[in-house]
# Entry
Amino acid sequence: MTSGSVPSNPFVAGAMIEDPQLFVGRQDELRDIASRMSGVQPISINVVGKPRIGKSSLLYHFWQSWEQRLSNTNEYVVVYVSLQNAGCQTENGFYQALADALLNRVSGWKHRGLRNPLQVKPFNREAFADAMMKWKQQNVLPVFCLDGFEALLKHQDEFDDGFYDNLRSLMDANALMLVISSRQGLGVYAKQHRFISRFFNLGHTMNLGELTTDDAIALTRLPNSTAPALTTEEQNYAQQWGNRHPYLLQLAGYWLWEARQQGKPVSWAKEQFERGAENVPKEAVNITRASGQVLLRLWKVPLYVGRVTTLVGRNLDDAVNRIIGVAILILVLLAIARVLSWNQVWDFVRDRLEIK
# Structure
């Protein structure tokens, strides 16, 4: 940035985060992937999460930073491949996309033993399996970060049980490791699309949720805590609007920054934020807070029922009302089930209400 130039907006709303300096949080998940990659034997991972929760950014950042997390880096090659690429719409295209990604990471005459198996023509299922086994013989594990598994489901005529069985056999042979992102667990898709391959019983499922509170605060202080792009007041607004959801926090930060640059009020930023927030599935927003509200309402039900007793006097406190309310609900359910008669239920209520 030249002197006097306008700083760039550090918040990325809706796109995968490619600048590693702008990636915040997910350290436990990153460590987990590295641990399962470097264990006694590699364990493939299915990263599951709602849209816009940060699955793509996680896989991409792991590809960028994996060498910082392992000591024996010469034993692995990690690549990132988006399955939404046009080349991945056919089985041979899928293999070629993976081969190209690997070839970009191994260059020079020292790696001829790794490069040559990937340059066979045609590069089909058999050639891919053979290449992976030759990599294993050289004690190098290819780790494929495959983003957006749902793209393969759109082409089931290309990607059938045989395709998935081949991948599973290579996983079982410790010839490759997969880190696959999807909106639902692979087992769910197996049932929906009637796959029978063991591939869908992937080694480990990682459920990706909202950020921790500390990470959410750190995100609003981008590009760094010593020189944040947002003022303290704007950071507070972003945290209130976005809570701990990574996309919503990015969205809030983006529009608060734009509002200040354009001389717009906070209300304008809030309006733009709310429009963008409509793209987030409602069930993905504030799940924890919503669950707490449901539990609170359920807890109040017995209180409301118990307060029927206040028709003849308000001498019972809320604790007693809750107990009586629970008892009445249970008796009503028993009466519906014909375990008790309605007369017995009424006798109990009449006694509690002290109706003569």
Remarks:
- Residues 284-292, 308-313 have pLDDT under 50 and may be disordered.
- The two ends are 86 Å apart (CA to CA).
- Residues 287-306 form the longest helix (20 residues).
- The first strand starts at residue 45 and ends at 48.
